[in-house]
Amino acid sequence: GQTQKMNLFQSITSALDNALAKDPSAVIFGEDVAFGGVFRCTVGLRDKYGKDRVFNTPLCEQGIVGFAIGVAVAGATAIAEIQFADYIFPAFDQIVNEAAKYRYRSGDLFNCGNLTIRAPWGCVGHGALYHSQSPEAFFAHCPGIKVVIPRSPLQAKGLLLSCIEDKNPCIFFEPKILYRAAVEQVPVEPYNIPLSQAEVLQTGSDVTLVAWGTQVHVIKEVAAMAQEKLGVSCEVIDLRTILPWDTETVCK
């Protein structure tokens, strides 16, 4: 189908646009999302879909996720933004003790599977201690949620749409250093990339290198250096989904 040159934040906007158009119950909310967000990921969406579907929240991450759980339990599709991944910790209890366990604790009478939490993730070079963290490891040990980190605009759109449509609570971390740095052709129409499926980016016979998000690009450079300087053949795998991760591809 038709493709368009997009950077990573534009591919996120495109995915959110597709989700709102497809699902009339979908809502997007968080700090400053109504005017487009600090990284411009929701720009134009309030004007297009109205203030009842794209709206700001108070500066309270615990409240944002608690509200999102309620929205999802009531049957709507909740897409909540935590402005920086570093500030997801006040919502940790809501995610780990409420969202992840909702289906189990109610014997599947209720669930908040229509919940996606987005957050800019990782270092950007000038973020210091409160705007540079990569907290996925804290969530990688929690049954009941899925954790996803893309490496590029094409991957970001397909994986985000899969998270939004998945019937389990998902956390989607977006590498903020790639928001403008990563650019490629991305389909305009919606498409899905399966969750929990790693991608082998480069075959190799000596050693396997596994990474996700921004580090995929670093690992690819390392693999090229290893081949050139040491004659070592490296396989490169992008994990993509951190939880539940693709053990089969990595072990193979």
UniProtKB/TrEMBL annotation:
GO biological process, one term: response to nutrient
SUPFAM superfamilies given in the database record: Thiamin diphosphate-binding fold (THDP-binding), TK C-terminal domain-like
UniProt keywords, alphabetically: Oxidoreductase
EC number of this enzyme: 1.2.4.4
Cofactor or coenzyme needed: thiamine diphosphate
Catalysis performed (reactions): N(6)-[(R)-lipoyl]-L-lysyl-[protein] + 3-methyl-2-oxobutanoate + H(+) = N(6)-[(R)-S(8)-2-methylpropanoyldihydrolipoyl]-L-lysyl-[protein] + CO2
SMART domains: Transket_pyr (SM00861)
Stretches assigned to coiled coil: none
GO molecular function: branched-chain 2-oxo acid dehydrogenase activity
A Pfam family reported for this protein in Swiss-Prot or TrEMBL: Transketolase_C
Keyword Oxidoreductase among UniProt keywords: yes
Domain Transketolase-like pyrimidine-binding per the UniProt entry, residue ranges: 6-181
Top-level taxon: Eukaryota
Annotated protein name in UniProt: 3-methyl-2-oxobutanoate dehydrogenase (2-methylpropanoyl-transferring)
Originating species: Upupa epops
